[in-house]
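Fill in residues.
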């Protein structure tokens, strides 16, 4: 299988590499560090050994003095290894540790100490269009998403349908993260209706018939498992009354489609629109993340109803983006961008749509969505 080059650039020092299952963390590290000393905690035998005796890591390192790089795959399965890694980093200069994790839940307490100048926190995201190059297909991306495990599967439909079940079985149920797996499974469906929308926790709680506090806990679990993210309202120098709630997104468009129930009363346009917005969201999230958070992702919505889907704000960029699932640009589609530009004339504003031509309408750049996604590169500024 051809290994695709990723936009992720590893630090030169020790680091934690987070990323949902199937995003290619192990593949990337095997390719980048072929001679590293490797511990795979998904291997049952390795898991048992290090769970029983984490300090065996010291013996392994001492027994392989020629190895300067140590990779520990899925370190969240044995969090006690963090203390041993900490000791080794302090004691053995020149030794580099790379730890991967598909959940930050068990690592939160230990990682907080390690991250204080010892381990950098990084994330590997699903494929970006630019990483796939000529293989990127917008229609397929909207159907199956861009998780490498799914993209490279011979049966992407079956792999996608099994993806959330894998998490429920191996992360949620096996680790005892929630008491009632059935309730959490219903929550995964209920919260899918909030994908690309303002998150109303009370409404989600009513939908899955649990308390508000339970839903807040479930959302935290979903984010700890790296399956979802939220973006806040952009409120710097606000000139209008803004809402305060965050917007919610599953981390991948295909995973959203898998979680979202479908029936006779569901409008195709509603699901397709949320899928397209989510695909753009995950690209922008990756673009910001690979820059080590030099930029941050927001959205903008006034209490009167004007909304701009994405605001990218940081040291070198201030951009407002609206996403429309339409093949033609309507003046009505530009209303919110005009309002935002009135308040923030410094911002570059643009509309992404499903047409084929790049247009300039009322001094707003209107760009084909596929064209925009293909050109998105973390090493380059966003352009239209």
């Amino acid at each position: 299988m051809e290994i695709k080059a990723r936009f992720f650039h590893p630090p030169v020092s020790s680091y934690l590499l987070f990323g949902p299952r199937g995003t290619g963390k192990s593949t990337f590290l095997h390719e980048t560090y072929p001679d590293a000393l490797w511990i795979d905690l998904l291997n049952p035998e390795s898991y048992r050994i290090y769970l029983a005796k984490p300090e065996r890591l010291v013996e392994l390192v001492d027994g392989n003095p020629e190895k300067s790089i140590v990779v520990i795959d899925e370190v969240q399965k044995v969090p006690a290894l963090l203390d041993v890694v900490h000791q080794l980093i302090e004691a053995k200069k020149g030794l580099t540790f790379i730890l991967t994790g598909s959940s930050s839940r068990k690592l939160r307490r230990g990682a907080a100490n390690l991250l204080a100048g010892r381990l950098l926190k990084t994330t590997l995201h699903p494929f970006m269009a630019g990483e796939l190059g000529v293989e990127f297909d917008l229609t397929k991306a909207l159907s199956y998403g861009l998780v490498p495990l799914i993209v490279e599967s011979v049966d992407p439909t079956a792999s996608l349908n099994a993806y959330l079940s894998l998490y429920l079985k191996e992360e949620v149920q096996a680790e005892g993260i929630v008491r009632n797996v059935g309730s959490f499974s219903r929550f995964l469906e209920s919260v899918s209706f909030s994908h690309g929308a303002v998150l109303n926790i009370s409404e989600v709680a009513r939908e899955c018939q649990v308390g508000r506090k339970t839903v807040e806990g479930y959302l935290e679990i979903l984010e700890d498992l790296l399956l979802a993210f939220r973006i806040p309202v952009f409120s710097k120098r606000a000139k209008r009354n803004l809402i305060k709630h965050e917007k919610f997104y599953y981390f991948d468009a295909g995973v959203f489609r898998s979680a979202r129930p479908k029936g006779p009363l569901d409008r195709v346009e509603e699901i397709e629109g949320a899928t397209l917005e989510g695909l753009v969201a995950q690209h922008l999230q990756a673009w910001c993340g690979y820059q080590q958070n030099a930029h941050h992702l927001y959205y903008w919505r006034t209490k009167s109803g004007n909304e701009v889907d994405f605001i990218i704000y940081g040291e070198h960029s201030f951009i407002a983006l609206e996403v429309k699932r339409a093949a033609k640009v309507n003046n009505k589609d530009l209303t919110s961008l005009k309002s935002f530009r009135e308040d923030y004339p410094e911002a570059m504003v643009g509309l992404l749509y499903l047409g084929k031509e790049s247009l300039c309408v009322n001094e707003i750049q209107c760009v084909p969505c596929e064209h925009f996604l293909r050109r998105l590169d973390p090493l380059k500024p966003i352009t239209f």
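The radius of gyration is 22 Å.
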